[in-house]
Structure formats: C-alpha cells, structure tokens
Amino acid sequence: MFDQLYRRADGRLLIIEAKAPSSNLIWRKGFGQAEGLMVKQGTREYLQTIIAEMSARPHLAVTDATGKVWTNAQLVKELNTSLAGGNLDYALVKAIDGKSTYAGAVIEHFRI
Fold it and tell me: Is 0.85 topped by the overall pTM?
C-alpha cells in the first residue's frame, strides 16, 4: 500500500510517499502490468504494481480517519477510476533534517 491516501476537497485522490531525511524512494519487483520490471516509487509502473497487488487480496481492509472501513477491492476501483480519469495526484513528502528540532518538509509532485 501507499504511506497515505487522501480524497481532496475537489474529489481528486492524493497518494503520499513519506520519507525521513536520509531515506530515498524504493525500488521493487513489478507485478501485474509491470511484471518483469523493477519499479520505483513515484512512477506509474509502481502505482500499477501496488494496485495489482491490492487486487490480488480484495478482502483485506483498512479504516480511514473517519472510521469507514475500505476493502482493497473498493480502493482499487477508486484508484483505477481516478488514474484513468487523470484525477490522481502522487507526491513525495520528505522531512528536512533539523537534527533534534522540526525543520519542515519538502514536497515533490510526481508526473504519472
């Protein structure tokens, strides 16, 4: 799954990959449409891999901030609809190293 998934006020979905100051985006083996590839967070192929993995386990569920339970099948439908319609945003939020104090974060939007 992704670190965070939000529905914005305008209806668009927003996926966040959250990273510590010393962390980088990860690579993994592709699945589904990306089978046979190495895919990196922040790419369309990575999104497709995660969506395919969620599709393979449709009954797994998560609870959102409002207490609503979502199955993977429901999330996959939402993600595919948003991705196909160009209504999905994908971003990296990386903390700035402030040693022992909060120093903010950098936001990078991916082109998918």
Answer: yes
